[in-house]
Design a protein that fits this description.
The chain is of the alpha/beta class. Helix content is about 50%, strand content about 15%. The C terminus is likely disordered.
């Protein structure tokens, strides 16, 4: 008889007092249906992570825990940011569930996509990404800057899923491997694809925020984008080196042109030496910065101390398949 999996839904929450009761009502109704259908175990639960909120978010979580069957809470001592709060919740549930879904509290992500994620899990997928079909609810500026960001990340060589935020299902073994990453500047959308295993996508329509206001203004989105780029790529450093090479090539052309003008006596005194030194020294400085940057980039990669690989299984001649996901 196949074991019914335990589902944990992790909901990072920061000043979400206006929306939490409705969020829990919808998730609880979904749990009731899934348990009745035998898709998840009755011991499944919802973990609300309070990210140092200054409003009534934590008292509401405590009340939900006291009065409802599924609510659990994790209270962080201070505000550490969405990504850190989400990881704290995932680390808390990794040994206490068979699969975990991360979702924001604002109800923009469709909770009805969770049953389809569970179906994919039952088909053998360890990671199921919740992907938006479109961005009609976004402003023109946000829609186009997001598109530019994903294209930039792809050019930088970062694995990411277009139109996917942090709405995803992960199996227990995928979670446990994710938790072995040690960096402090988190960009989970880039880290999760590094886990490997079988992945697929579930598509849904994103709604407008149910209540309250967005906790991601332009400043935070910009910082998030910078963290995403600098946490996964040394290409910006290498660009300095290649720009320096271009400057040196320009310096050679300018040198020939300047010497030609000098011997034709078509210049004012001092102009030739100034032009040659300006371009040549600028190019040499940028190349030097690029070379130093390459070594700093190597240090940057080493100090992250990420696991080098994830062994899904090991097949030996005299043994059965050995799982290595823990």
């Amino acid at each position: 008889m196949q074991k019914i999996p335990i589902l944990a839904v992790v909901v990072p929450s920061y000043r979400e007092e206006a929306v939490l009761p409705e969020t829990h009502r919808r998730l609880s109704a979904l749990y009731d249906r899934l348990i009745a259908a035998g898709q998840i175990a009755p011991s499944s639960y919802i973990l609300y992570v309070n990210d140092g909120s200054t409003d009534a978010t934590w008292p509401i979580i405590c009340e939900l825990h006291r009065s409802t069957p599924y609510a659990c809470g994790l209270n962080l001592a201070g505000n550490v940011g969405h990504q850190q709060a989400l990881l704290a919740g995932l680390q808390a549930v990794q040994q206490r569930c068979d699969m975990a879904v991360s979702i924001d509290a604002d109800l923009q992500d469709d909770v009805e996509a969770i049953p389809r994620m569970i179906e994919c899990y039952n088909e053998g997928y360890d990671i199921v990404y919740g992907v938006r079909r479109e961005r009609k609810t976004d402003t023109f500026f946000k829609r186009n800057t997001a598109l530019a960001f994903y294209r930039l990340m792809k050019w930088m060589g970062v694995k990411s899923v277009y139109n996917h935020a942090d709405y995803r299902l992960m199996s227990s073994r995928a979670l446990q491997f994710l938790c072995t990453f040690r960096e402090r500047n988190l960009y989970l959308r880039g880290l999760v694809p590094l886990v490997g295993y079988r992945t697929t996508c579930v598509y849904y329509n994103r709604e407008k925020r149910f209540a309250g206001e967005s906790k991601y203004p332009f400043r935070k989105m910009l910082n998030f984008a910078i963290d995403g780029i600098t946490s996964f790529s040394v290409k910006p450093v290498r660009m300095i080196f290649w720009i320096g090479c271009i400057f040196v090539l320009i310096a050679l052309v300018v040198t020939l042109w300047t010497l030609h003008s000098y011997f034709l006596h078509n210049v004012v005194p001092g102009w030739s030496s100034l032009m040659i030194s300006l371009w040549l020294v600028g190019g040499v400085v940028l190349i030097s910065l690029g070379i130093v940057g390459e070594y700093i980039g190597k240090i940057y990669i080493e100090v992250k101390d990420r696991p080098r690989y994830n062994v899904e299984s090991l097949l030996m001649r005299d043994e059965s398949v050995m799982k290595q996901s823990e």
